Amino acid sequence: MIAHRVLFLVLDGISDRPCEALDGLTPLAAARTPVLDRIAGEGVCGIMDSIAPGIRPGSDTSHLALLGYPPQEYYTGRGPLEAEGTGIHMTAGMIGFRCNFATVDADGLVTDRRAGRISGTGPLSEAIRDGVDLSPLGVGFRLESGAGHRAALALVGEGLGDKVSSNDPKKEGVRPLTIRPCTDDPADRATADACNEFIRQSARVLFDHPMNVRRMEEGLPPANLLLIRGAGKMGAFPQFSERYGLSGSVISAATLISGIGKVVGLEHIPVPGTTGSVDSDLDAKVKTAIRELDKKEFVLMNIKGADEAGHDGKGVQKRDFIEVIDAALEPLLDLPDTLIVVCADHSTPCSIKDHSADPVPVVIRGPGVRTDRTARFDEISCAEGGLHRIRGCDLMPIALDLINKSHKYGA
Ligand SMILES: O=C(O)[C@@H](CO)OP(=O)(O)O
Ligand SMILES: [Mg+2]
């Protein structure tokens, strides 16, 4: 028997290092995960370097690699991908950025890069759209909120370059940086000037926005500054259906992932109630994936919350959310005719609150798969599985082979 459809389940940042709060276990190893363990027991397991050993992947470069688009060839920055995911269509001449709604204190120091993991920032983006004017610089802009503290910005105008730095210091307790051109090209200077002006004007709008006034009254950090990063123009991506002969959908609350899906030609299926955080409606997400697999041959589903817990350094919360994920995945066990691939896109160790290069666990389960002896889905058990150690770009070829869609190399 051979499967005819693929469910590609990325448990964002689920992989970790030993946590002190969990007696030296990783959150995944500490969690009770009967569903993932059954998938591991019925499948072939391994560990995976999303890009290559020792390379710390971003979620952008890792997802491109997992979908078989080597980032070394296709990556043009996070900004344009994140922008597409928020609904900003990136055309020639536009420069995309990823933004964080962040908090600075009265001294101008960044006190929270994520403004207390604020959500529902639509009114803030709207106020900035109304209150910021870059036309004296000959530049227009689009700004759209994403999930949580995330948003995307696109600058629109003649002669804008994409080789500019970020104002995000990537840590707290310091001032935001000034955005600078990375080359002598006047186009990069023009973009850097527009960015700095955008940040200045948007901070004025945010300063006394009613949503921030309310947050401060409630003792919550206000979203009074935008940190922007990941400048880039849209790249050219061969379409998924032509590359693999598969129709496909993407299910993700994280706009970066829906943006990547969209640009490679996957249909984005929004799911009400999903947030990209630990409060997401995972049952709705799983139901949508199952429904979508009746129509499409490939579904990419990303579940993000464990990554957030890793970034926040909360091992116990990460373990508990992994158990919530596991319970939500139960209906997938009975899916007929389906190759299920489960992996993380990168490790997000609670001990470093960021991504690391530690390889992630991976399992492939479905008809025809040569089952190995691993029956537990965690970083250590999967290292003993039959896939051994693969790279992110190996995953699509392996899946295509297992569903009989790969071409013979040679005659
Ligand atoms: O979006 C996110 O979840 C993370 C990592 O991609 O970014 P940040 O650290 O800016 O929150
Ligand atoms: Mg990620």
UniProtKB/TrEMBL annotation:
Pfam families: Metalloenzyme (PF01676), PhosphMutase (PF10143). It catalyses: (2R)-2-phosphoglycerate = (2R)-3-phosphoglycerate. GO terms for molecular function: phosphoglycerate mutase activity. Its EC number is 5.4.2.12. Pathway: Carbohydrate degradation; glycolysis; pyruvate from D-glyceraldehyde 3-phosphate: step 3/5. It is an enzyme of class 5 (isomerase). Keywords: Glycolysis, Isomerase. CDD domains: iPGM_like. One of its GO terms (biological process) is glycolytic process. Residues 5-401 form the Metalloenzyme domain. Catalyzes the interconversion of 2-phosphoglycerate and 3-phosphoglycerate. Belongs to the BPG-independent phosphoglycerate mutase family. A-PGAM subfamily. This is 2,3-bisphosphoglycerate-independent phosphoglycerate mutase. The lineage of its organism: Archaea, Methanobacteriati, Methanobacteriota, Stenosarchaea group, Methanomicrobia.
